[in-house]
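Risk register update: the risk that structure generation would not scale has been downgraded. Supporting records follow, first protein first.
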Amino acid sequence: MNNFRLKLPVRKILRELDNTLLLTYLALMIIGFLAVLSSKGAIAEVGWFSIIAVIFKQLFFIGISLSGAVLSYIFFKRYLKHQSFLWLSSVLLVFSLILVLLIGREVNGAKSWILIGSMQLQPSEFVKVFLIWWFGVTFSATRQNQYALSSSLESLIQVKKDVWLERCLLYGPVALMVFLIKCQPDWGTNIVIFTLWFILQLVANRYRRGAKILIPLVFCLALFIICFVPLSFLKFLPRHMYSRFLAFREPFAHADAASFQMVRGFMAMSRGGWLGQGPGASLFKTGYLPEASTDFIMAILAEEWGFVGVIVILGLLLTLILRLYYLALKARTRTNKYILTGVASLFLIQSVINLGGLTAIIPLTGITLPFLSYGGSSLLAFSMAIGLAFASLDVESSYLRLGKNRPSKRYSRQRFNPSDHARESLAPSSEKESTP
């Protein structure tokens, strides 16, 4: 036992991680913890015991999320391009989504949560991270070999190589997950998934010319329906969805009913002013704003920290997103490019939808604000996405022009073969396809 030592080069790993991503991620986690702690109620009204319970519960979520980020970094660094793990993950996610429909708990019209003791797990949050990993690897693999997915299954079953079968294997798992999420129904999550899917397809240059014209037309049609179609034509929608459209179109006309939360959110933000009421001094978190810690966490932050505080928080989010896009632009391999673009787009989409619903630019969807809103599943999923981004950067770091002239020594232990990555390089290949 004395001869056995587990050596974990923590300092070396931290030194080689991207400092901007790491610091902004940790800063947002700290701000999110303080925001959730404040939004859960005033000490005088809920009591010290309840506040201590909230502190320990959120610290537990943060600990699980940080562990998830580290474990996902270790896992993806080693198995990023292993398609067997991709297929296994897709099976586990489909099984969990089916389990949600059978024994899940319904909240606000959607059966999206599985009860695990006193905790709740939302599997649909992890579909977003899986989609980035799946398309990041498969789009790159099928670019080099159009039958890559069929070949990956040959060791299990005899598969006939066919173009249409390959497309079914490429899009089938994600389409099945989208259908199962629709059955919950969770339209907000599906909106994020479809938008992320569209962006990754666009970056991978997988759209034909007709589709590039058709998709913006579909988007404009959906925008027209949301903004201008009479509400009487939308009464076929489920009640909770119709009420959200009603609150979006006529927020002040239904301030005591459908748009109760939205109007209270406006009031909380206006009360904050330039510098806010001070940390913990929010009035609307004490019962005037029911979803203060989730959908409307930014309204509470605006009330307590003011306009200046909101600008700082949004600046941190924007720094994280732009840094990921910058690293994606500098990437030298397609897999790295697609994954980093997907992670950045996930944070951007979630932020735009959450803040758009808060300010009545779009209807409310129940989408959380990355790293700030209360919720263990979303915080864990976002942390796993950060771990995926770090792993992608680590595996491909020798092909990023960020001042590193050569890969670190640990690549020799991983049997790093530059020729494998050269075949995936973004340089023009012998194929007739144009690089994305």
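Supporting record for the second protein:
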Amino acid sequence: MCGAYVMTPSDDEADAPSHLRGKVRQALLSALGLRLGMWVVEGYLAVERFFGFLKRLLFTCLKFVGRQIIRLIDAVVLPIAAALTRRRVSRGSVRTLWGYTPILTLPHLAACDKLLGLQSESVVFSTYHISRQFDVNLQKWNGSAIWMSQNVFGPSLYLFRMAVLYWITLRYDVISIFYDRSVLPGQSRFGLNRDELRRLNRAGTRIYTYAYGADVRTRGITMALGKYNCCIECPDPGTYCICNNQELRDALSGMADAVTARIAMGDMAAYVPGCRKMHHWPLDVASFAVTEPPERNGRPLRVAHAPNHPEFKGSRHIVAAVDRLREEGHDIELVQISGVSNAEVLRQFSDADVIVDQLYIGFHGYTALEAMAVGRPVVCYIREAEMLADADACPILNANPDTIYDVLLACLRGEVDLTALGTQGRRYVERYYDLPAIAARLGNLYLDTADFGPALDAKLRDRVGHLEAGLPSIDEASVPERFRWASDRTDGDGRASPASARQHIQ
């Protein structure tokens, strides 16, 4: 009997339905997981959007509440501050503040106010290594507030600054500040906060604004001043100064009605329309030791130059002039000073025969005054005689990049009496930049603008008269005529006067 042939599936074939079912199950689970994952993601995003909305709503509410609280504090504090100012003015016990840019003249300016019988302090939020001698230094508190703002509570810095502003309105009657910063941040990189100015006005505070250079200097106005200016070799326009004309316009807009007076001097007057021109750099001249000029005894003529930024001072032309003179066989050396303390700068000035300040800016800097205070002659580019405190008595040898070689050559040949110019320089700063001289100038400023009232004005007038009577007399400087400055408004290089340069921002 033939056996029947029965077909039986192989093992693989038997497992096929199970394998397919596994794949289907895996696909279903993956799809379900993907769907669940999408639901989770969508849910998370929805929750995140919801909490973001709550955060924005809460921030808006806090901002609104904060504004109302600030307005309430304004309504309480500012009238009290105004009443305190009126009371102190009537009693002749006016308090003045100098801030907030931490430059080394602030303590000296406060000392000048004290010579007028006023109570004065310097206030800063930060310091440079060059000087830390300020009456009120808020650097640690300000640093803590910055850390709190970055790590704990965003408005911490603003609240700290507002508290300081209220303290200032209650404590001081006159504030003198520079254009680059106020207590509250300005509307731009440079400039004063307009809300702060309005609060100070409501508190009856007299506000004086001063220019120191970078806080008002713009490239357009500076380039219009003439062939040589501090912008022609600027390595990075927009970094070191306010630079932009529109930014300066914005910084100065609306300020005329908010401040008591705007003050500038020298080249800085070109940038501040309607300013009161007044030299306001004080020196405590008695603290500068005058030493006899070092004996030559066959040594080279020593020229010292101490630029903080060589590209703004025409330093390369000084180097080139000295190198040329040396190549011609003249005995001369250049000492370039940088990265040292102010005391070391003055020591090296005392060891030099002549100091070159700058050849580009068109006005002498504070370093030139310090050099004259130690009895050393100064070479500097002076664009206009009108920029000087006293053009006839100023002993500065005028030089620009075209003439620095001739000036140094004349010094080598003995055509310039360097010893006499050094003596006259010391006399010049005693007469025009010593603390009593600046104090008398500030006193006249307050008499003309502060409206303190008859009683206090009488006291101020008496103090000013006493200070002016004690200033030394001064004679015409013995600068050779060819190294003086022209008093006309233009010259061959087409330079513009500050008045015409100001047209760029008006």
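The longest strand covers residues 119-124. On this basis the risk owner (M.S.) recommends closing the item.
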